[in-house]
Amino acid sequence: MDKHIHVASTLTLVFIVLLCHATTLVSAVDDPWTGLPVPPEPSPGFYKHLQACADVLTRDCGLEIYNYVLGSGHVGPPCCQKLKQMGETCNNDLAFALGRFDKYKKAALIIKTKSARMFSTCH
């Protein structure tokens, strides 16, 4: 698999995530991140860094985060634990990266805000 396609899947999986049109849970059959074109890497090694961040999360956790950040989902304790393990820098960088996708550019500020809120409220 092309590393950029894998990164795109990982980024959107994590927030994967996106706004008012994503108010219902996404099924495993219809992943919302399939087929998105990958924006250019903002700096060398950034996508590698994001991959290391996302490797901490499970697919199910990524979907929980996606639904929370872009809709009205809930992030449960197991996912919060993974999120805290991943760290705040990774959380912020993943939110930034997601907001760079054409599909989500208009929601970039909401993604950043909800992602930060999610991270701070996880115990």
From TrEMBL:
Looking up InterPro entries in the UniProt record yields:
Bifun_inhib/LTP/seed_sf, DD11, Prolamin-like
Indicate yes or no for the key word Signal.
Answer: yes
Q: Which Pfam families match?
A: Prolamin_like
- Give the signal peptide, or none: 1-28
* Keywords assigned by UniProt, alphabetized: Signal
- Indicate the segments forming the Prolamin-like domain, all copies: 53-95
Instruction: Quote the protein name from its UniProt record.
Output: Prolamin-like domain-containing protein
Per the UniProt record, the source organism is Vitis vinifera
